[in-house]
Each structure stands twice: as structure tokens, then as C-alpha cells.
Amino acid sequence: MPSPSRMFALLVLSVVVSLALVLLITSRYMENMTQAEVAVRWAALVVQQDYFAVWVKDILGPVPPSWAQRLSVVWYQAQPQTWWWLPLVFIATRSLVIRGVRRRSDRM
Hints:
The chain is mainly alpha-helical.
């Protein structure tokens, strides 16, 4: 049984990797969006009081850089909170692969 700190590190790593994948895939689908459209969508999110857009506005000011606006729009489109199960899939897959490799090495 792995130590609790190692399990926590694995959980954090799987959350970071799954969040990065979800945001990257969503960003790729939104690649053809112009900066003007991003600015309009970001302003709409601020008016709707979307948590992440308001947080970006509070941290970076009323006119944040374009990358921050795009990240807010991508975050809203991706809805990362609905992908809560993805880190668990990563951990389960990793465990199955390691178990299979150990069984194969024990046979030899």
C-alpha cells in the first residue's frame, strides 16, 4: 500500500493532467474564435457573474490581457467541474497498467 503522501501526490497530478487535457481540448475546438468574439463572450460572462470571469476581473482589472479573457471563456465552455470523474479514470488506468506489468514480470 503506497504512503498517503504518495497517494495525495498522485491525486494532485491526475487532477492537474485531466484539467489541462479538458482545457486544451476545449481550446482546440474554439480555435477559430476571433479576439473580438472572445472579448464579447468574456464581457457577457462578467455580466452573468460567472465565478471565474469575475475572479479574473478582480485579479487583473477591468480589462485583463487577451490570454486571461480567452482562458475565462474556455473555462466556461469546458465546465471542468463536470469532469470530476476523469482523475479517477487516470488513477484506475495507471493502477491497472502497473498491476499488469508486475504480473508479467513475475511470470518471467
